[in-house]
């Protein structure tokens, strides 16, 4: 499928001079799930708000479904469902009335079957006549999602949707997300739960300091940026964490309990060096008990990318 959202040169600069977005370019394809990862203050919410037409960018162009977000705001906004971080709901309103009202705001005709379907999907049907103030934080977040889906949007933004939600509710939410994707809805989510992005997203975007560091297919990202670690368990713990000079070029690390060695290598390298390492360990008198490997997680990749950018920014500031 083609692109449903195009962001070109998006800048958001406040009067103080602070730039929340620094020339962001982003293409989101119809029907995909894309996860935006970034630390607090990275620009995730500002980017979402700009695409939704809630925040006015300083410069740049955003189009949704081929329509400019500023010139044709009503058309673009009608295509978008937004689940914000804040639990901004009417305390004394009933659940079903809240969802009905949200549908009406977009000029959609009444459709009780659709409202019931959404509420059942989100396990809210039994709570349909309950007042919002009687619900738990997790259930209130479900109501936000129901509101966002009431007008049948083509694009759904989920800004930290599982914050404060228990594990069971979180599983239900992601089941709904997968159903929506199957029906053709495009989903953009921000999350601090990196394992969720790793599980549900088709592509991963990393944003920090108002800049997109990368947007890439999840599997490709794991393959290209991921490293593997080999843990070599020893038959007997080492006497100290100092290794023979003959092993120095392998950049080995020793576990805190001195019972194992850790060897990190690039999975795409022509030679991993494992065979040579094992031979040199044997020659140095090491007796091995077990060997196991693991690939870097998305969290480790993410932390590494952000750390690298922060280091470059700091170095640039020092040079200036």
UniProtKB/TrEMBL annotation:
Its EC number is 3.6.3.-. GO terms for molecular function: ATP binding; ATP hydrolysis activity. Residues 5-234 form the ABC transporter domain. Keywords: ATP-binding, Hydrolase, Nucleotide-binding, Transport. It comes from the Bacteria. This is Daunorubicin/doxorubicin resistance ATP-binding protein DrrA.
